[in-house]
Each structure stands twice: as C-alpha cells, then as structure tokens.
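Question:
Write out your own:
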Amino acid sequence: MPPPAPEVAHDLKTNPPLRSVRWLSAIVFSAPLACGAHTFGTVYNLPVPFWMYAYGASAALIVSFAIVAYFASVTSKRGASASAALQLPQTAEARAFAVLSEPWVFVMRIFSALALMLTIVAGFVGITNSYANINMTLFWIVFVLACFYLAAIVGDLYEVANPWRTLCEWAEHASSQLLFRPRSVYPRGLGYYPAFILYGAFIWLELFGQVQAHSLSVVLVVYTAINVVGAALVGKDAWFRYGEFFGVMFRLVGKIAPIEYVKEKGKPDRYLVRFRKPFAGLLEESADDGSLILFMLFMLSSTAFDGIHETVPWVSVFWKQIYPLLAASIDRPYVFMVNFYYYWQWAMLFISPFAYLLVYLGFVWLAKLATKSQVPVSVLAALFAFSLIPIAFVYNVSHYYTLVVSQGVNLFHLVSDPFGLGWDLFGTQQWMQTPVILDAGGVWHTQVALILFGHIAGVFVAHVEALKRFPDPRRATLSQLPMLLLMVLFTTVGLWILSLPIAGGQVVQPPSST
C-alpha cells in the first residue's frame, strides 16, 4: 500500500522556533548525529526539556575542547612538544603480546566461511519467516551490527577471517593455480569508489529493498560473485582493500580499538597481536584518497538518513512542499504519483554523502582561513577525516544497538533450528522465547551518552592531529574552532531528531483530485 500523505497534528506554522529547527534538520539530513527512535512506537516524553539536553551536550563539547587546548598550551610552555605529549604511541613502537598462529587463523576462517554458507543455504531451504530463519539474524544482527561493534574493542579481526577472501584462497589452493593473480593493475584513480558504490547499494537494500530470507541469500550469492570477479581482475590484495566494502568499514572502525593485528613478514597466515592506546590507530595515517573520505561521510549520512527519512518533519517536506507541485504539473492518479515519493527518498539517500562532503570541506576551508595555512584544503580534509570515525561509529551504535539486544537473543534458539523446520539440535530451541523490551528512558540516556562520547573523542583526535600539523598551540586551536562549531551544530540538531518518534503524527489519505 502506498504511503499516505501525512497530516501533521501540530502544523509547523504554529511554532516558528520549532519550525526553523525542523527545516534545518531536513536540509542537512539531520546532521551526523540524528537518529530516529526506532525503539519507540509512541511519543516519548523526555525526562527534562530538550533544550537542556542540547545546552548540556554542547557545553560538554566546548569544555572538552577547552581542556585539550589548555593542556596543549601548558605542555608547550614547559618546553615539550605539545604534539608529542598528546600523540598516542605509534603502532610500530608497540610490542606484540600474543600471536595468532596458523591453526587459529585457519579455525577463524573456517568459522566465518561456514557462517556465510549457512546464511545463504538457510535462505534457500528454510522457511520464509524472518524471525524463524537464522539467516536474517545471523547476517543483520550478528555480522552487520554485533561484529561491527566488536571491532572497536578487539580490533579488525575481519581482515584475518574475511569469508569472501577465504573462499578465494581456498579456490586457489584447490586448483593449484594462481586464479587471483592481477590481470590488470588496479587503476589509481579508482580509489575506494567500488567499495563506495557497493556500500550505497547495500544501504538502499537495507532501507528500501524489503529484503527477506530468500532474497538475502540471492544478494549474498551475487555479492560473492562480485568479489570473486573483482579479485580475479585486479588481484586479491587490491580488491579486498579498495573494493570489498565490509573490509573497508571494519578496517576504519578497527582503528578505534586498543588492539591491532599485523601480518608477520613472509608468513601471510600468521599475525602479531599488539596493544596500543584507544584511538591511536586514527593518528597513524591520514585518508589516502578522497574517495575514502566520501566513504566515511556516507557512514555518517546513511545512518542519519535512516534516522530521519520516516519522521513526520522529513516526510512532510515531500507531501506538503513537493507533492502539490507535482500534482499541479502532472495529471496522473495518486497511485502513480506516489512513486515520486520513493524516487525522492532514494535521491536524497544518494545525495547525502556529497552534501556532507560539501559541509565538511566548507568547515575545513574555514580552518585553513583561520590559521592562514598554505596547505591545500584537500590535504587538510584528508588529515582530519579520521576524526569522523568515532562519530560515525557511536552514531551507528546509538541507532541500532537496541536491535542487537532485543533480537540478538533469538540466536539461542535459532542455532538449534536454523531453518525453522522444528528441529532442536542443541536443546536450546525453547530458550529466550520472551521478547526483550528495553526501557525507553534508558535507551534515550544511553544514546545521548554514546553520541556525546563519540564527539568528544572526535574533538580530541582532531586536536591532536592539528597539533601535528600546526606545532604552535594557538594555530592548532584556531584551526579547530570551525570544526568545534560544526560539532555543536550537529549535536544540537541531532539530539532533537533523536528525541523525535517516527510515529509522531497522524496520517490521512490526500483529498481526491477528481
């Protein structure tokens, strides 16, 4: 059934201040902090007025920025290098405390490959009920969410156990041929655009594809074929660095973790496990291509879009502003015209990372002006890009962690009956049958805390990076003032969207034009 046009209970015209905030949120796609309260089906009343949360979060960002700037200034006056004092230890200086030997790596790869195969097979032979078929929970909840979150704690184990790369290597070993030697040199100008395009298709499927158990298996088979062909054309190393988008995502988030995995020279199946301080990985390198910056910004904008695209203010933009113009110029039935609603939503999703890029480059340009730096904007944008990763990560966690808690428990009984055929392989089929319902107030406060923590971490990383580029603490601080302003704006608008339930307004069928 096509979505009816919303009749908003409280018209935006009756509240000019609220109207301005809503329009601002619509223009910037709710900024990288917006997050719709998917857990709530009804209006949730905040414990205190929203403006108190907004002022408090903004004040926390400003105070954290001031503390970092003051610390840098004091360190400089004492004769030490402020950049060196704040710089976290480089990975090369960290000592390995353990080793992932070949047997452990083999077991991890076996497990990941079998999990992928189980997900695909379950979609083809299991029942269509998404809650009774393990493939939906195993892929969306365990892999896309839980394993992604775990990477920020234990590091990028996905690089060690990537199931698609594992399948390529197995095929190569089984045939005793170099099936995946590069047929051509990976084009330097292509960068991370293959991963970006595949990531965009993945988000579109997640939000609009109405993927079910069977169609998910089809998608995974197609994605497997894409990885095999890509690795055969440009080689495994190039493809799984630039083209396989899950690998790019896990690698970026893994930079947050206090643990990293480094291949031993001459031993591709053996990894050194090293400790480092949290967020140190974000300071070891800068974005090596503009397409990687675009990829990171899409990590922000896609989740922001998911948070706002079903809210009343956002939907009202189409039905109150765009739809009347279309209806006046195109004489077609409503059922036909409603297709434009989907086209508009799809277009906004794919435009979002480019809109974020313009905003980001604009504030980097302001930082360049503030410091009178001769460094090109593109170089500065690459230097500060990794400070966005903590924000993108906590934004994703705050948006989806409730799904991990509420639906992840289904895995206990799904492992005993993966296809929904009434089996009880491990005696857990009746476990955790009672739904997990989280308290709305607890969810809200957790989301606020996560978002604030991510922004504070981003401010800190950006300031340390500024001190590396501008050893003078004064210039480093000036360079970060525009970015701080952007963070405060994003936090304020984002927390408002976070407090907005999706089911916040009444909906009615539009008047007939006949």
In short: The radius of gyration is 24 Å.
